[in-house]
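hi! just following up on the protien thing from before. the input was this:
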Amino acid sequence: MTLDNAVHWKLSGFGDEVDTDPHVQGAVLLALGAHHIEVRSAWGINVVDLDDDATGRLKAALDSLGLAVSAVASPIGKVDVSLPVEHEVERLLRVIRVAKTLDTRFIRIFSFFRADAQSPADVRDAVIERMTRLAATAAEHDVVLLHENEKGIYGDTPERVLDLVVAVGSPHLRLAWDSANFVQVGVKPFTAAYAMLRPYVDYLQVKDAVLSTGEVVPAGQGDGELLDTLTALRDDGYTGFASLEPHLASAHELGGFSGPEAFGDAGRAFRHLTDSIGVNLV
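and the predicted 3d structure came back as:
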């Protein structure tokens, strides 16, 4: 691929996988060649709990580093579906306020947990009702919700992710692609999901996993078919964000952690893959 027709993707990453301090988060991302950051928490405070003062301080810190925000990684929809619709609508409104201050239109969300005794079919109507309301709220405020295919929620398999996005049918509900999460529910991402979901994918989250154990590993070192997926995205004309979410040290309900060294390893592993297919990370 010549320089004239090279493909450029915008490198980003979950800052709180590096450190709780936004200045440390930013320093590591800048060292990896990124000019964007994905915000899930700052100073240990999740985005849904950031008040206006803290959000303003975060914006000032990122501006001082020359970093823009690719997305706000909210926990919206990472709750039991039995909660009232208004519960997550109210929380989304708070996150939208954060996103507006940070100058991003993208907000990551999920599609609800269910009780152990319930099947996905049991909760489908309740999920669609809630996701439709969330998408309508996003439309009112001109933001875009990015559904992540987290394991254990309604939209964890390709078929249910497709059902969800088609049933809601809103340009304000799109998809964040996560290969590792598909692997952890027993799915080969490129083989089983890419063609089905690509028309709705607006964002790439970068991590990989081992099919036999579910262990999260750097991009290209697991069974997430990253090289096939990245090549197809390149050929499809994708020019959006690629956000590192390594989860190499720990993972929990509201996120994960890697630390500066492992986060750097993850970034270099991903760049090795993109370099090999002529994609420039900027």
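The chain is about 40% helix and 20% strand.
The chain has one domain: 3-281.
cheers
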